[in-house]
Amino acid sequence: MSSMIPGSDARRLIDLFPPRVVADGTTTPFLRNRSGEGFFVSDAIRDRLSSIVETESGQIAISALAERLHITDDEVAPFVRQHVKPGMLSTDGQHVITRSERDRIHTDLLQRKNQTVEKLLHSTNKPYMHLSQFARDFGTLYPEVSEPTSLILEELGDRAVPFPSGYIVSREWLDDSVDRASKDVTMKGFAWSLPPDVLLPKPLAPELSSWLAPRIVESARQNDPLSNSDVLHGYIMRVGWYESMCKEVKGAARAEARKQWEADLTESSFDLRQTLSDTISSSGERDISADAHLIKTMVNSDFATEVDREFHQQLAELEKEGNSEFASLWQDKVFTRIQLYRQGIQALDDEKLREQLSDALREHICKDIVPKALALADSRKLIRGETLKRNVSKLEQALASAGSLNSVVLALEKWTKRQSIESSDTEYLRARKWQDIDDLIRSMHVQKQGRAAKDGPRLFGILVVVLIAQRKDGLLKFASSAFAPKLLKQLKGSLDTGVYERLEILKGKVKSGEVTEQDLESMREMAAGA
Fold first, then answer.
1. Phi, psi (5° rounding) for residue 438?
2. Is the pTM for the entire model greater than 0.70?
3. Which residue of 45, 47, 281, 305 has the fewest CB atoms within a 10 Å radius of its CB?
4. Which top-level group of life is the source organism from (predicted)?
5. pLDDT tens, position by position, 306-317
6. What does the pLDDT average to over 84-111?
């Protein structure tokens, strides 16, 4: 090359013109040739390098340029990196990019950018992109600036909307979302403030919801000026529709309470909100159409407090009704009977008989009256709720350990008071007593022909009980026929002599087993006509 200077001359020139230091390293006007016999003037080598970059194509490895430029390997890399223009080096710094290659890359990159913009602007499943990603992918198209964000936004204009999180979103998609949602609000009563068919980044979602919601509300108002809409629980809803939906959800909560009550479910793991979500969502009989997500959102939002209140209020009402029914049953089947039976015992003159009947009544209460009343209450599903179940269990334990009629009565009175069951008043007891007497008299007619001998003891016992009840306080309905002879003595002096003698005769026939059908009919007539 004509620009080569012999070695001895170059050394003298270097002594006269020492290398100058620049900001990015040391440079020299002379470069050693590959044979080591002389030096090249750096300007000439730079011109040669420029010619290669301007006229050739593709990418050229820097290591391959040493031989082509006839300079040593250790000098070529610093020289090339110092003298090529920005954008003419590969990203790894190991290749020189020729102008034709750079133009090709620029064209391809520009084409990819345009495709990306078009995809962004018209996409339905991913209508957003972060500006930093856009800048990383296409920043080389803006070599004149270090941060191309503003230029990108300027190019997009009103075709995209920027958000504080750094995302840009297609204006076409935003407008379409507002239009679709506002139509849903008008037609269905509700719409999600965010399109459910698009997966959004977490930082963008709340910003997008805040942007869309007021525009959907305004658009819905324009569609139906007479209907008001509002943003509730992440949805845009017509106010009237929301109120109707609240009413339906509350109704479902009450229905669920009734279901729980009827099934006597007391599981601690019961999840009201999840159950309501599943029940309402799967029901085909809903008055109002709503998606499962909206229902789940409603029953788990601040509205859930009202749902819980409806559920528990319904349970409380059902429990109150159940307790009232139980109280009526208990008063009728247990408390009133015991009051009448105790009055009947206390009205007797024979102390020993009173003691015997007291023991009989204690056993009758513990083994017959209370168990049958509880069984009847259970069959009617009146023993509900943890409190009542627990109290029933305590009563059964108390009665099992009671050794006397007084202790049984005391336990029952305490329990009855705890259940807020009032004792029967005098007027009610009197009416109930005569009702039971009528029932006893009617029961004497429920007999079969040919059973006089067997029916005699029972009918005679009923007759004596009826006659005593008609003359004394209380009722000894519980007393078995074995007590009839002793009870008969309590009637002496209160009956006509002829009637009493007739009873003595019947007593003898019962004892001997000689009762006839005529005797049975006589007993019925005496009870009815007493």
1. -60, -40
2. no
3. 305
4. Eukaryota
5. 888 888 898 889
6. 69
